[in-house]
Amino acid sequence: MNRRLFTILTALMWLALPLTALRYAQSWNALPGAVATHFAANGHPNGWMSRTTALSYALGVTMFVLVIFTAIALVILRQKRAIENSSIAVLGFFYMILGGLFCVNQGIIEYNLTGAPVPIAPGLLGIPLAIVIFTIIYLRAQRGSPLPETPILAEESHGSRAFAVLFLLIAIIELAAAYAIPLRGARTGMALSSAFFLLIAAHTWSGFNYRFTSAGLEISTLGYRLRSIPQAQIADYRPEKWMALRGYGIRGAGKTRAYVWGNDVVHITTHEGEVFLGTNDPARTVRDLDMMKHSAHT
């Protein structure tokens, strides 16, 4: 996708505002004075607003989301000369969230007009599906070609048991919520979220696996190859501290990637970008990189 098309699609997201306003305008006179806008898990209303407040709230939430999404899209445009698959996935994720939000607003109007159940399920189901799709595309970006088969010189792993327990608790809470909600579609969405967090917990417990060979460095998790870096592309590396504000897990966009579950990293500069390896022992990781580079010249 070129930058022009990405820019156009970013601007088109703002159609969500006039479309939401138009839908309210079409039904304005038929809407009751007190519009049901909040619903319990069983689909019964438990909160009401005036028509004007309901419209303002729907537009306000939509605008808030649009401002955040647009700001992220502008950062992507500013940092990248070419739009990559991971950036397209981000834009697709934005559209799915906005589509779910519009669907919920439409459902609120329909409930107040006809009593039809509010389609909460598409939003709850669409969000985890969007996250899964985005994650798959993101993980496949910047993987590089597999390295040739050579003997393994060293192997390290880097994870976090504390984060794994946290994600496991979130998965349990999501699963309990799925069991408690009577709506089938909502249950499916919550169950998908639970499975997603369970997978993250398993990854975090197992951690990132680093294999150092004479051909280069391979980064993987749970048997899935995340990145291959030929040793000839590695220009420099040095230990650094990682700030928590930069986040944990797989971070970065474009030609920068970080694989971090702690506060110590080894910063690798390659001919194609920057890579940050989270590590429990920076000195050992540097030694393994030294050994890898040395083996390529023997």
Please provide a written account of the structure.
With 298 residues, the protein is of the alpha+beta class. It folds into 3 domains: 3-140, no CATH class; 145-157 and 208-298, PH-domain like (Roll); 160-206. The chain has 8 helices and 11 strands. It has helices spanning 3-12, 16-27, 51-79, 85-114, 120-140, 161-180, 184-206, 282-295, and strands spanning 34-39, 45-50, 152-158, 208-213, 216-221, 224-230, 234-241, 249-251, 256-260, 264-270, 273-278. The chain has a 5-stranded mixed β-sheet with strand order 7-10-11-9-8, with helices on one face. The chain has a 4-stranded antiparallel β-sheet with strand order 3-4-5-6. Strands 1-2 form a two-stranded antiparallel sheet. A hairpin with a 2-residue loop joins β10 and β11 (273-278). α2 (16-27) packs parallel to α4, α4 runs antiparallel to α5 and α5 runs parallel beside α7. The longest helix has 30 residues, at 85-114. The chain is elongated and about 80 Å long. The two termini are 43 Å apart. The model has no long low-confidence stretch (mean pLDDT 85).
